[in-house]
Amino acid sequence: MSDRQEKMRQSAEKLLRDGEVGYVIGWGATRFCDRTTPVFIDSPEGAASLVWNEHAVNSLAKYLLDDKYPDKKIGLFARGCESRAVNRMIKDNQVKRESLYLIGVPCDGKSSDRCRLCRERNPLVYDVLLWEPEANAAPADRFERVRGVEAMSPDERYRYWGGVYDRCIRCYACRNACPVCSCRECYVDMGRTGFQGKQHSRSDNQIFGVTRAFHVGDRCIECGECERACPMGLPIMGQTQKMLKEINELSGEYECGLDADSDSFLGRFDLDDKDEFM
Amino acid sequence: MSRIGVFVCHCGTNIASVVDPDRLTPAAREMPGVVYAADYRYMCSEPGQQMIKDSISEHGIDRIVIASCSPRMHETTFRKMLKGTSINPYMLEIANIREQCSWVHADKGRATEKAIGLVRMAVSKVSKNEPLYAQSIPITKRALVIGGGIAGIQAALDIADAGHEVVLLEREPSIGGKMAMLDKTFPTLDCSACISTPKMVDVGAHPNIRLMTYCEVESVSGYIGSFEVAIRQKARYVNHDICTGCGLCETKCPVKVDSEFNLGLSKRPAIYKLFPQAVPSKPVIDSESCRMLKDGKCGICAKLCPLGCIDYKDEARTVTESFGAIIMATGYQLVDWAAMYGEYGGGRYRDIISGLQFERTVNAAGPTEGHILRPSDGREPETVVIVKCVGSRDPKKGKSYCSRACCMYAAKHAHQILEKLPGSRVFIFYIDVRTPGKGYEEFYDQTRMDGAVYVRGRISKIYEEDGGLVCQGEDSLLGSQVRVRADMVILETAMEPSQGIEGLTSMLGAARDANNWIQEAHPKLRPVETQVGGVFLAGTCQGPKDIPDTVSQASAAAAKVIGLLNKSEMETSPMISAVERDKCSGCGACVGICPYKAITLQEIDDRLGAKRIKREVASVNSGLCQGCGACTAACRTGALDLLGFRNGQILEEVDALCL
Amino acid sequence: MSLTEGFEPKIIAFCCNWCTYTGADLAGLNRMKYPENVHVARVPCSGRVNPQFILRAFQKGCDGVMVCGCHPGDCHYSTGNYFTRRRFMLMKRMLEYNGIDPGRFHARWISGSEAAKFRDTVAEVSERLRKLGPNTKYREALREGADAGKGGAGI
User: Where are the domains of chain B?
Assistant: First the structure.
């Protein structure tokens, strides 16, 4: 572990010393031994504060959206999940590949529930790979939880999600953590258009939940950041996963962010799509 | 706060006998924002319209709802009416209380309730309406016709005769297309060249037509009224400005390659005219076979040319021209049957020819000077088999569609053989005989009288035996296998869109159907338009056709173009998509959804705090956008919205219904 | 049972201008009869219908929602309804997954000549909704009554 951490520090230090990047986004220690925090290192000396351990949980890619027009390249430590996020951001025209320096760090598994669906530990796109790729662990059954909800009766499902959204505090952490939420202004923050109210009520919360799933579901890279960020611990990936499950059933094997070219499901069509509206 | 006027129409008794105006009008008066409500027997009548206009000025109304028949009926009428008032024509909503209420419901109480709901929806929506202004696009009074076959020729002549400038673009060295290759045309048997070459000459001589042969479209931008088209003039290596077309250069060229015009049945030199009556009647050098251009050794033609026209250093040039309208007349080609039908020898047997090769064979100006001879040994055939639907109506191996002209030219081929070779026998294998056209059935009857034997069935195999071709197939009427020993076989092969159609249509944004033919805007009512404004269709690029249909369509497309070019500018609908740049993150979700390619990402200068940045945002081309709104539903943030049907307006309708 | 007795559902139908709206007009021209509870909102193309409109309709108190457009291949704008098809295939499934009864949302292709199909679809949807009773799911707390002012849990 410390060997890898050392490699990361050296790599960041060199990039910063050579002026290749403006800063590097990585993980740093906190005062809790089981927590890390995203850090932004902008000097060669600062590289020594980078850490790599099983608690380096946060996905770092989202921070790229906060600096979409950098003067210099941004260095980003990229595991499988970061790289899929980057692919999706490039496809969505939010970041430019040439403004990134991706330091590939194959993931050795983290102590987070968000990783249970991980299907790709190794970065799919990178400028340098710091160590050998890791073997992918067999992920949990991708749609197990969705099937659990599907098995309920309509009223039970309504009660289940109603119960979930009763606890939602509309803090929008799910949105803020999501690497594919890239609107300049979220529909839910707008007063004028009025797609939905901002009231903290079951109805408004539910509608926010379904809308969020609809907005990101066909681009979801399944990183699990939404659920990790949720302070109420709500199982909201159950919504985006449902979108993915249906897309899989309608159009075959579907995973997002594996490359930077594929159109998302709702952005294209097939003449032979299933038709149940006849 | 808006000041809404509501006008309820009785439509005689059409509405009033079911929907009670005495309940509806007072109910409307109570709706939020309504300052005036009235009803009248016929709102669309002159006094009705006058009443609305008077009320607008009298009550300071700034937007109106008319509860009447379907907006599909009178929306335009009332918009026109508003042009003469203080309010914008788009400050209008119509509540459809006739077609969708009084005519479909019997219970007066409930129908009136529903009408109140419909008016409430319209009132809520109109409260969010905003003035919209039609833009006018200037029209460049110039047309581009792509393809110089008979469709393009006819369209170009019609437009030019109406007084507009036309550029007729052709990728081959001469115009004329497929019709110039034909011998005689059915059912009248007049000589194809005799009727098409005068038109070609007219094109060449017309003061309003500029011929651009040996040219290809490189790119297209813009929209109806002002297209910018980059045209690539391929290198001809002959200076056409001074060439007189004397033909001396062609006589001593040492190169001999297959003639495109005669479909490989004869040879041509490297410096050549496509055919003797070519327009322009000047040669080009085929750079792929010219020795001078390939190896730098030869130069005979340059030595022969008395005017010094030959220029081996000629290069392709690209010019950009502006047009107000474009006609696609790119025609068809025949399918490569040899690649599709291994059972017919896959091209190994020289005496199996295509229908078009037969046209060249039987043509007096063709390789055999009109004598029907077998390509293999130059003998006159005694027995000829004609196979129809080769590649057509064959979803497994070829095209599922019918190529439409083959039944008739197969009959013509049979007639020509029987006429030119007395004593010969002709067998025609067919699936059906389709002869819908003036004089077509009579012609087919005559061919049978001439002695052509029609056998219903497909040929399943052709093989060579003792210098002849054995055609084996089924006579499905007798239910038995038949075998015919033929000296020559003519395959009447399927038409397919010309090569290159994909690139051209995608440059224009025009759609293609499942078989790659260019898709018309509406199969019944807009058959000569594409869904791209200002791009029209003539001839077989839209689907298989015979000559009369092609020419009719060409003239129809020309009429559309003339109508367009007669205007100096045209109004576009203002009900199109609009982008709120501040909100747009440039994600591009809308770009791929637009069927008209009206949305592009455009770089704009912006600020991010103190920093100046360049960022991309969606930009809608008002000349291309047709106002479908499919993009708006893809825009997660709502930066794209459809004017006249804004998200806010539709949501108001929803809310109003639920009140 | 008492809940649904005499109950007339409120239905909003988003109809494209070129096909279904025309088909509905034709039903009128032919004096066909259908229940009064459907209200048509005209849109240029079914592709214009944002799935969020449907959520809004349920929230505000519609008992049923319909989205209708041209048959695939017949779209006035050539491809709009192909996107409609994808969007609403997913939205329909999301609604069901969230506990909304499948009978409450219907997407249908109805051409300009299919007046009878429009009539029959409306009749069928109304009948189904009559049996289902008023929609309470996703409903915004009513402004009047016990919940007023609480802004809390809703129904």
Answer: 4-127, 142-330+501-565, 332-496, 577-643
Cβ contacts of C105 within 8 Å, gap of 6 or more: C54, C64, C65, C66, C67, C91, C92, C95
Is the Cβ of A249 closer than 8 Å to some Cβ of chain C? no
Q: Has the ipTM of the complex gone over 0.90?
A: yes
pLDDT of A192: 67
Among chain C residues, the shortest Cα distance to B626 is held by C77
Q: Please tell me if residue B525 touches chain C, with a CB cutoff of 8 Å.
A: no
Min Cα separation A79/chain C (Å): 31
C3 pLDDT tier (thresholds 50, 70, 90): low
**Residue B605 near residue A154, CB atoms below 8 Å:** no
Q: Does domain B142-330+501-565 have CATH number 3.50.50.60?
A: yes
Name residue B321's amino acid. E
Name the strand (E) or helix (H) holding C60. Answer: helix C51-60
| Fold of domain B577-643 | Alpha-Beta Plaits (3.30.70)
Q: Pick the closest to residue A247 from C94, B593, B636 (CA basis).
A: C94
Q: Say yes or no: do domains B142-330+501-565 and B332-496 share a fold.
A: yes
What the block records as the tokens of B143 is 């047309």
Q: Cβ of C48 and B629 within 8 Å?
A: yes
Dist CA B178 CA B202 (whole Å) = 18
DSSP B406: H
Radius of gyration for the alpha carbons in chain C, expressed in angstroms and rounded: 16
Options 3.10.20, 3.40.50, 3.30.420, 3.30.70; CATH for B4-127 is 3.40.50
| E strands, B139-183, in order | 142-146, 165-170
Give the pLDDT confidence score for residue C147 in this predicted structure.
41
- DSSP-based three-state secondary structure for B522: strand
Q: Mean pLDDT across the stretch B230-245? A: 96
Q: Check residue B379 and give its pLDDT.
A: 95
Which residues of chain A fall below pLDDT 50? none
CB spacing of A154 vs C100 below 8 angstroms: yes
Which candidate, B394, B389, B626, places its Cα nearest to that of B521?
A: B626
| Closest CA relative to residue A228, chosen from A164, A179, A177 | A177
Kindly indicate the confidence band of residue C5, based on its pLDDT and cuts at 50, 70 and 90. low
- What is the architecture, at CATH level 2, of domain B332-496? 3-Layer(bba) Sandwich (3.50)
Asked if residue C72 has a cis previous peptide bond (ω within 30° of 0), the answer is no
- Does A203 contact C at CB distance below 8 Å? yes
User: C20-29 and C115-132 are packed helices; what angle lies between their axes, rounded to 10 degrees?
Assistant: 100
The answer to whether the CB atoms of A195 and C51 lie below 8 A apart is no
pLDDT reported for residue C1: 46
Buried b (16+ CB within 10 A) or exposed e, A20-40: ebbbbbbbeeeeeeeebebbb
Report how far residue B28's alpha carbon sits from residue B34's, in angstroms, rounded to the nearest whole number.
7
Among 3.40.50, 1.10.10, 2.50.20, 3.30.420, name the CATH number for the domain at C11-132. 3.40.50
Kindly determine whether residue B70 and residue C17, on different chains, have CB atoms separated by under 8 Å: no
Instruction: Find the CB nearest A194 among B586, B593, B651.
Output: B651
Query: Is A266 within 8 Å of C155 when comparing Cβ atoms?
Result: no
> C149 pLDDT exceeds 80?
no
Domain boundaries defined on chain C: 11-132
To which H or E segment does residue B6 belong? strand B4-9
Q: Which residues of C are less than 8 Å from B531 in CB distance?
A: 77-78
Phi, psi torsion values for B84, nearest 5 degrees: -90, 10
Q: How far is CA B142 from CA A136, B324, B397, B470, B534, in A?
A: 63, 5, 43, 56, 12
Question: What is the phi-psi region of residue B389: left when phi exceeds 0, alpha when psi lies from -120 to 50, beta otherwise?
Answer: left
> Rounded to 5 degrees, what angle do the CA atoms B308, B314, B319 make?
125
